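Annex B. Sample input.
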Amino acid sequence: MIKNVFDEQVVAEIIGRINKLNPDTQPQWGKMDAAQMLAHLNVTYDMDFTGKYPKPNAFARFMLKLFVKNTVVGNKPYKRNSGTAPQFKIADKRDFEKEKATLINYLQKVQQLGEAHYDGREANSFGPLTADEWNTMFYKHLDHHLTQFGV
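Annex B, continued. Sample output.
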């Protein structure tokens, strides 16, 4: 079930799950450590809130909309060990506490901005999305990786 990231109680629940992590929490699958996973999750929000990741060119965007968008904003859960875009690959060491704090701040910011802010807002890779599509994209990714780490 896709929970609503614009709901304060849902965000509190997600933050509670994040707070169960520590730098030594082991994944049930995959190669990332806990700090890398938090940094990986932060990429989605960095794309929304910062200019750190430029928009793909028109052809790449067309291809992303055609082949990736439905996987990202659809209700079907991600498969374990599924591939990821290059900008989401985190191979270097990361500061667990910094990544954790950044993610929690992003979650609170999204919740405070609310559904109206996101309805029709343009996503870096997919163009305009509905608030429901934004919610699905945010929650599904969070839930996938928090589950990966057993929280």
